[in-house]
Amino acid sequence: MSHFARKLKQSLSRRPKPQSWPLSINGSIQKIPIKYTRRTGSLALKHLVEGWCLYCPEKASLKKVEQMLTQSQADFERFIEQHSPAIQAKQQQATKQRQGLEFSWLGEKRLIDGALEQLEPQLIKEAEDYLLPKVRFYAKQMQLSPKQIKVKNYKSCWGNCYHQRGLVQFNWKLLQAPEWVVDYVIVHELAHLVHPNHSRDFWSLVQQHYPETPNAKVYLQQSGNQMMQFLAK
Ligand SMILES: [Zn+2]
């Protein structure tokens, strides 16, 4: 192999896999995000709350990924064009059904107004604005310094802690709970930076920094399911 060919091969292999793929839909180009996952053996196109998404097998090589995407491109474009009207109708229906529904948000009553697709990102943004300073406040109290704090969508938990990475994450839906319950979850996740388990030491650290812990746990047991269902499809 010539020097040039080797260089070319190196730079090709260093090229990252695409994070999105352009599809031409109804005359305009849309970049469809790609998720790499172990849970699929072949390329799949799905419609999620936030829009279309391509699922790609995690172990496929860059070459294979590009080959699959190119081969399926026309089919995907046709599929989206065919299914768009029905999806739009379904979304409008879902929005209509939930219009005017009341939900709690940081101890206040709010009404669902407008499209759900816009409401969710808006609420996530609000949750970030609220949670980030608050997590920093409790971290200081507990003499901890998380490296990263994130707010995201979870289907079945209120928070998560990757103690080795110093990363704590929170479910935006938690803000439907009263403030004193939110505080408990913050202290709980931060305490995992010290104890990555639910040992006796862990609980005594949580209790020490948050005496309302037993009541907050009861609250989440009773209302957690309903909060988790919020805006779920
Ligand atoms: Zn925990």
From TrEMBL:
<dbReference type="InterPro" id="IPR002725">
    <property type="entry name" value="YgjP-like_metallopeptidase"/>
</dbReference>
<protein>
    <submittedName>
        <fullName>M48 family metallopeptidase</fullName>
    </submittedName>
</protein>
<dbReference type="InterPro" id="IPR053136">
    <property type="entry name" value="UTP_pyrophosphatase-like"/>
</dbReference>
<dbReference type="Pfam" id="PF01863">
    <property type="entry name" value="YgjP-like"/>
</dbReference>
<feature type="region of interest" description="Disordered">
    <location>
        <begin position="1"/>
        <end position="20"/>
    </location>
</feature>
<feature type="compositionally biased region" description="Basic residues">
    <location>
        <begin position="1"/>
        <end position="17"/>
    </location>
</feature>
<feature type="domain" description="YgjP-like metallopeptidase">
    <location>
        <begin position="117"/>
        <end position="222"/>
    </location>
</feature>
